[in-house]
Automatic annotation (TrEMBL):
Gene name in the database record: braC_2
Swiss-Prot/TrEMBL keywords: Signal
The family this protein is said to belong to: Belongs to the leucine-binding protein family.
InterPro entries: BCAA_transport, Leu-bd, Peripla_BP_I
Stored CDD domains: PBP1_SBP-like
Domain Leucine-binding protein: 40-405
Protein name (database record): Leucine-, isoleucine-, valine-, threonine-, and alanine-binding protein
Signal peptide range: 1-30
Organism from which the protein derives: Tepidimonas thermarum
Entry keyword Signal: yes
Amino acid sequence: MTPSPSNTGRRRWLLGSAALLLSAWGRGVAAQGAAGRSAPIRVALIETLSGPMGNAGEAVFRNLVWASERVNARGGIEVAPGVRRPLQIVRYDSKGQPQEALSALQSALDDGITLVAQGNSSAVAAALIEAINRHNEREPQRQVLFLNYSAVDPILTNERCSFWHFRFDAHADMRMAALMSVLKADTDVRSVYLIGQDYSFGQAVLREARRQLAQQRPDIRIVGDELHPMARIKDFLPYATKIKASGAQAVITGNWGNDLTLLVRAARDVGFEGKFYTFYGNALGAPAAIGDAGIGKVVAVADWFPNAPGAESRRFYEAFRQRFPNPADDYVHLRMQLMVEALAQAVEAAGRSAPAGATALPAAQRIALALEHADVTLAGQRLRMRADDHQAQQPLMVAVMDRQGAPGVPFDVEGSGYGFRVLQRLEAAAAEQPHTCRMVRP
C-alpha cells in the first residue's frame, strides 16, 4: 500500500469514490464541479498508519472505505431534496502520538475538512477532544465533529464528555462487564494475572478488572498486576515467564495490536496453559500467534463477530471477504459500518432541517443534534446513540477461539484456521451502564 502522508506535505491518499471526510460547512460545500458533479463529503481519518501499530490503522481505513462504498453505491447522501453527494476518506498519519494527531487535525482544517474520525488510542482521542472543544469555541463558523470508533477509556463519555464527540464503541467498563459475565461462570479459574498497556485505556481496563472481580468473583486471587510501555516492547518473554511463574490460571488484558500478538505468542512459547480474557484477542494476528494453544482458552469481547448467528450477519461478512479477499485484510468491525450509516442518517436529517433556500451543507450543530438521535441497523445489529453522553448503545458478544469448522465456527480469522464461537450475546439494555456526563451544549 502507498506510504502514509506526512503532516507537513498533507498529501492525501484517496481510494476511488469510496471514503469519508466531511468538508467545511460554509465553503463551497454544495459547489458543483465543472461537469456538474457534486463535491464529496470528506472525513479526516486521523490514525496510526505507520510504525508497530500501523496495521490496526490500515484495518480501520479498509472498514471506512467499504462503508463509504456502500453509501456511495446507493447514490451517496441526500444533503438537500434531489441533491446527493458521495463520501470520501482522507488519511492523516498520527503515528500514534497525541502531538502528531493535533498536527494532523490542523492539517485537516487547513484542507477544509471539519469531520474527524479516530479511535486507536484513548490518549490521542482525549487530546483531540480538548483541541476540538477549543477550536469550536474560537471558530464557531467552522465547527468540527469527532467520530470515535475505538477509543474506549470510559472518561471520554463521562467526566470529559463533549457535545462534539460521539463514541460508537462500547467503553472499557461495558466491555469488561461483558467479559465478566462469562468469567463469573468459569469456576475453573481461581487466579488471574492482570497486564495492560501503560496509558489511559490500559490503566482503565486493569482498574475496572480489579473492581469487577471484587464484586463478581471475590474468590479469585490476583497474582499479578502490571502495566508495560505501549508499542515499545519487542520481546514479551520476560512478561510471559512471570505470568507462568505466578501460577495464574487466566490473564485479563486490554492489549491490542502488536502488543497483544507478541504477548500471546510469548505465552505460547513459555508453555503457559491458562486462559486469556481479552478485549481484542480475535484479530490482528493474535489467533495465528497462539495457534492450537488458544483453542477454548482465548476469550474476546466485541460488538460483533464474523461467526455471529444469523443469515444477515453471514451475508455481511461474506460480502466483506469478497471485497477484501486477502486473508491479511480480514478485519471487519460492524460498529465502524454502523458509524458511517449513522453519519449518513444524521447529515440527511440535518439537511431536512436546514433553512429554506440554504445552499450549503447543514451546520455542524445541526448534524450533531441529529447524530444524538441516530438509530441504525445493519446485518441484524442495531445501534442507537444515547444523547445524554454521546455513548452508542448496542449488543455485545463474548466468543471463544476454536478451529474453523467446529460447531458455530464456519469462518476463520485472517486465514489462520481458527475462528471465534459466540458464547454469549448481551442485548443493548443489558450492556448499558450509567454515566456521569454533564453535557454542555452550544
